[in-house]
Write a structure and sequence with these properties.
The protein is an alpha/beta fold and 347 residues long. The chain contains 10 helices and 14 strands. Helix 3 packs antiparallel against helix 9. Bound molecules: S-adenosylmethionine. The site of S-adenosylmethionine has 18 residues, from strand 3.
Length: 347
């Protein structure tokens, strides 16, 4: 299929499936919050294990405390940071086609919903969704966006689950009968996983949504490296602040990183097809984390996040390995970003 195209029509949406008639929800039924208490208490143990390994690294899920979430919001508005703007443009143009592909009375499950901007775009177009399940590790942002969505869509149940989506998870079911479950994973967040982790994550999603279920997923495409590197090394240094915030957060829990002795740098590593968010130690130093110490050579770096860029064919193959079939995709005119719809099973 050529870029920007899709096999579905943009014709007016069909009316609801007559078999399922939804009764109005009362106020208590509209929003449910389930806290699985993702284990942030292990921050030190994970940090020490990552920093003592041969390739020093820290888990990117720790970026998103309240300050990290706000810094990310600012990043999405930077002129250099094309992914959010490009994905939102694709959504604006094609969301009705996406809604038609998903069909009526679906349960939407979003992984890492954040402030829910893209969620709202999708829900505005969905045909009588049976319910919406939001999963996020950051409890504050999750609760705020669940309440906001419940107010905005008065006749749809919102279930917010505070959980780590990299861990095994059972999905809560909305009260209303649902035609199918469709997961939503925008923002090219899938690119934060390595190839094998991404396939394993897709397998778990396929299992969660079950036969007949689907996944709408945003992927950042391969492009000129200068465009990508500018996006992750912005002139104002907001991405640098976002990256260093992970060390500040560790300091709040008893580490003693000198933030001035680490420098942000995010090169595109061609062989891996990914941006690596790095924090480079400017000097030889020893850092205390709780009772442990970690040594750094001058110039040695910590990798805090990967951001993989994909060819469409490569992503289609990963989806296939996980038990999904790519049925539709929508892209911008430069093929910088794609929103793909995957279905479980099928030929
Ligand atoms: C980059 S933001 C993306 C927000 C939104 N989906 C978008 O595309 O604009 C990532 C979100 O995922 C959440 N997140 C990151 N790692 C997570 C994990 N392991 N489990 C659950 N949520 C996670 C963060 O708290 C944050 O809200």
């Amino acid at each position: 299929m050529p870029a920007g195209s899709s096999r579905v029509s943009d014709s007016p949406r069909t009316t609801a499936d007559p078999v399922i008639a939804f009764e109005p929800l009362n106020t208590e039924e509209r929003v449910r919050i389930i806290d699985l208490q993702p284990d942030l208490g292990d921050l030190h143990a994970e940090a020490i294990a990552g920093l003592r390994s041969a390739d020093k690294h820290l888990p990117c899920k720790y970026f998103y405390d309240a300050l990290g979430a706000r810094l990310f919001e600012v990043i999405t508005e930077l002129p250099e940071y094309y992914p959010t703007r490009t994905e939102l443009g694709i959504m604006s143009r094609s969301v009705r086609q996406m809604a038609n592909v998903i069909g009526s009375h679906a349960t939407l499950v979003e992984f890492g919903s954040g402030v829910g901007l893209k969620t709202r775009k999708l829900l505005d177009a969905l045909i009588e969704p049976a319910g919406c399940v939001l999963i996020d590790i950051s409890r504050g942002a999750l609760e705020a966006s669940a309440v906001e969505l419940a107010e905005r869509y008065g006749n749809m149940e919102v279930i917010a689950v505070c959980a780590d989506y990299t861990q095994p998870l059972r999905l809560p079911r909305p009260r209303r009968p649902s035609a199918r479950t469709v997961a939503y994973f925008p923002g090219s967040t899938i690119g934060n996983f390595t190839h094998d982790e991404a396939v394993r994550f897709l397998e778990r999603v396929a299992d969660l949504v079950g036969r007949g279920g689907g996944l709408l997923v945003g992927i950042d495409r391969k492009k000129d490296r200068s465009v990508v590197e500018r996006a992750y090394n912005d002139a104002l240094g907001v991405t640098a602040a976002f990256n260093l915030n992970i060390l500040r957060r560790l300091n709040e829990t008893g580490a003693d990183f000198d933030l001035g002795a680490f420098r942000h740098h995010a090169p595109y590593v061609e062989a891996e097809g990914r941006i690596e968010m790095r924090l480079i130690s400017e000097v030889a130093q020893t850092v205390q984390i709780g009772d442990a110490t970690v040594d750094f050579d001058a110039g040695e770096h910590i990798v805090t996040e990967h951001s993989h860029k994909y060819d469409l064919g490569q992503f289609e193959e990963m989806a296939r390995q996980a038990g999904f079939r790519l049925t539709n995709h929508w892209s911008d005119e430069r093929d910088w970003f794609s929103v793909c719809f995957l279905e479980v099973g099928g030929a």
